[in-house]
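User: Please predict the structure of the protein below. I'd like the answer in structure-token form so I can feed it into my own downstream comparison script.

Assistant: Understood. Taking the following sequence of 246 residues as input:
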Amino acid sequence: MAFGQYLRRVREEKGATLTEVARKVDVSIAYLSRIERERENPPPDRLLMSIARALGAGRRFVWRGAATTARSASAHPAGYRSVSAAVGRRRAVSIDVAYPHDATSYDPRPIKAHQIWSVAEQVRRQLTPRPQMPCLDLGRLTRSGQKLRVNGVEYATHLDFERTVFDGRGREALGVTEADPAVPGAVLISLNGAVIGDRDYLKRSTLAHELGRALFDGPSMIRQAGKPAFALVTPNEQHLVSARRG
């Protein structure tokens, strides 16, 4: 059994939720979810020890994690740091939008460009406290997270900007928007900080792209709670033109 699967099994046996463990060890919910789903390399030793303490797990858990980590020597690039779990506990930015959708599946109906721009304007007005501000306030987003209400469906988003992101085939990607049955009522957004680096334009465009997915695909993701997790992947800088399922 792979380490991520083992971690999820131990956590569930201990009766702990993924959200509880992430907050105890001070990492993002999205990151811990990706570890459990084998979308992320095993954690470094210090985080492994923190997870073990949070779960009350014994030496066998630590040894197994350490052995797996040793086989993934490049588990975390230089400069690795976690996104504080405090992000998820601060006052959330609330976004409330509506657009034409199927009443059963909650999938969006075919809409024209001007309708998409209308949704974007709804979001911008709620995210940007100063109307004259031309760019999204990334600091406000990362500090607060989001609480969404889309076509009457309420859910949260959890953000992680700091780690390498891979698709389902192990290929590196710029970003991903995911749903995980272990985190009910939430959509998980991760950006590849190692690749994006200091390119502010790329961080903003990729975040806007993933946030769009959370808004247009989030309601149907949430309604599939209990089904296997799935992801929408942004593979490269062509993400404003094309994307693929991962």
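That's the full token string. Strands lie at 93-97, 146-150, 153-163, 165-166, 172-173, 175-179, 186-192, 230-234, 244-245.
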